[in-house]
Each structure stands twice: as structure tokens, then as C-alpha cells.
Amino acid sequence: MPELPEVETTRRGIEPWLSDRIISDVLVHNAALRWPVPDSVSGLAGLPLLSIARRGKYLLLSNARGSAIVHLGMSGSLRICQDNSPRRKHDHVEFVLENGHRLRFHDPRRFGCLLWTAEDPHRHPLIAALGPEPLSEAFNADYLFAATRKRRIAIKNLIMDSHVVVGVGNIYASESLFMAGIRPGRAAQGLSRAEAARLTQCIHEVLGKAIEQGGTTLRDFVNSDGNPGYFAQSLQVYGRQNEPCRRCQSPVKMKVIGQRASFYCPACQK
Asked: Can you list the domains of the chain with their CATH numbers?
């Protein structure tokens, strides 16, 4: 599944092509996504786009009439086509720009969504209850330490909870916990203030680095220009079960936590 860095990479990739542009038409070739694509998404056409923003893993394409809310789901991607090249099988929606370019929403598994709201998109039910952005000032050591109090949940599950903080998916949670020296299965309430501060900083660093490098190479993910991301080349523990830890050479372990594979070094993480 595309995680926050992949979604931010996509946003940055499509923004120069869309900013202040007018979408002349919205072509829905297959409305059967996670939720049916509403006819009202045609509201995106006819007026200049004012912003191409991101909240958590949602992309928000807005004009003066409202906002399209896009989620890439398990396998979705957005790509700019500079001509009317043939659609691929799973290109379900096309946004046709007035200059002839097209933004295509491709989603083989159809777990993504494309919705429309005429209201403030941050008040939409899918977005209103989200926690702070992990790279914002609101997500700091004091906030995370307070969020861990009296919580027996595994710390990895807590930082993956979008009501606590958005966008820290499975890969980046494992990588951040490794950098912080904290085992993923530890009870959240057992973290000290110093450990919460260290983990907050590591989440900032891991996600920031991933965004700079273009996201993680996932099987189904391509970024907006059709190329894979490159952060996978730098992964420290994720997907490296039984391989030597890059720091101490101990074998990397895998444990299922919250029904997700979690990777860690038993020597470096306590």
C-alpha cells in the first residue's frame, strides 16, 4: 500500500502540472472503486485548481467549487499523460486538462477512492478525526509521550494508528523503531519521556528521508512520472528477516504484531 511518502511524492509530482490549471472534463470509465465515484466529481471541471494538497494519505484537489478527495488504496497511482495515449486496463478515471494533458487514476485492485465535497475537506468524515501530521510541529515529544500513557497497545500499533498520528505505515514504523532502538512489541505505556522524544525525532527523519528519495519501492507503486521510488534501497530492517543487521550483524527477526509483519534487531532494539 502506498504510504505517506509515496502519497507526498505523488502530490509533488503532479502539482506542477495541475497548479492553476483548468480541468476541462472528468471522464469516469469505471465508478466501482471502494465507494462508487459520485457524479458530483464533475464539479472539479471548469474552474482553475487552487491547490493540490495532502492530508494523511488523502490527496485533495480543490477549486472554488469544492474538493476531490483521492485515496490510492492498495495499488493506486496517479500519472500525468502528455498526450491522448491509450488508456491502460485499470485507468478508471481521467482528468482532462485544458492543454490536452491528462491525469489518470490507475487502480488494479480498486480499493482506492475518489469522492467529492463542496465543504471544507478537512471536515469530511474520512479526514476530520485524523491525528496530526508526523512532520508537523503538533507531532512532538510531549504529544507522543502523552499519547502513550496508560496504553498497553504495542508501540508499533500505536504509531500506526491514524487517530494518533497519520501516515506512519508498516514499513516506516519498523524503520523508525529500529532507528530509535525500541522493539515494536513493547507496551506503549512503558516508554520513557526520553524514548518518546527519540522516537518522534526518528519518525521525522525516516519519513523526511523517504520523501526526499521518492518513497518506497512497492510492488504496485509507481510515482507520477512512472518511475519507482528509491527508499527501499536504504531499508534497515523491513523485509530483511534473517539477514544481518546493518548496525551489529545480528540476524533481523520478524514477529507478527497486530496482524502485520514487524521486523527488528533483537540486539539493537530493547
From this structure: 4-123 (3.20.190.10), 141-264 (1.10.8.50)
